[in-house]
Amino acid sequence: MTKYILRRIGMMIPVILGVLLIAFVINRMSGDPVAAILGGDATPEQYEMERERLGLNRPLFVQFGDYVLGIITRFDLGNSYASKRPVSEEILTRFPITLTLALISLAISSVLGIIFGVVCAINQNRNIDYIITLLALIVASLPGFWFALMLILLFAVNLGLLPATGLDTWRHWILPSVVLGLAPISNLCRTTRSSMLEVIRQDYIRTAKSKGVSDNKVIFKHALKNALFPVITVFGFMASLSIGGQVVVETVFTIPGIGSYMMIAITNKDFPVIQGTVVVLSLMVCIINLIVDIAYGFADPRIRASYTQRKGGKKLRAPAEIQEGVAS
Question: Of 74, 108, 123, which residue sits at a domain end?
Fold first, then answer.
């Protein structure tokens, strides 16, 4: 299992470098930040002096190499063109807000999504199944920014029940968390439903019922445990999408997190801030995927068996019942 974890950690390095390279190149192709900083009245001498000060007069590969080296050795993400402050300090002050919002929304979406999926599965082809499935499809098709604006209009403007912007009290977290957890709820619900329907048709479930085991024990102790394998995979994918969705949510609700910081930097062509936020967000996504992979490895004995070796170097085979996919 240790080999499996180390391999997954090693796969994070080229992913982060690739994302950083793409962001670095796109930044340089998007426009000239010096013109945005100095305006249209700058002389050619002032223009060249500013480019030299920012290090933009050097070859592109030299800039990228120095930037990566600074991150590896000192976690130096550069200084913001606008505020002149270190980007790493700004991100560290905003990171707890972004992380808290992500954890709250993921907790809500995972609990509700799995519960709704189980309810639909055990009530297949009944009215409650049709209603929840229809609502899940509708929710999955709603654009996040539009849904956020509609919630603000309803609960903040018309009803006055919840605040529209900021994070001063616990009530400020409700609307952003609901919007951010919207898509994961619908996707986890549909995945859990499909997986549960497949599991409850297995022979061992019928055997447990024939022995007089209660329905609740069969569903929650046996069926749900084995139905969570594909749900774990989908949860990792949806968690990654939620990290990206925070850019929109934080901008709409004026939340001082990493996502809104990135949007301001994109508007101002603040290259160090854009690159720094991309690095942090991509690292968060990689860590989430790593946690999901580790959880999947502990949940599925076949993965542990595939990475277990004898002293002679030959891989151990998983037990026959595991290889055949029969839950014990």
Answer: 74
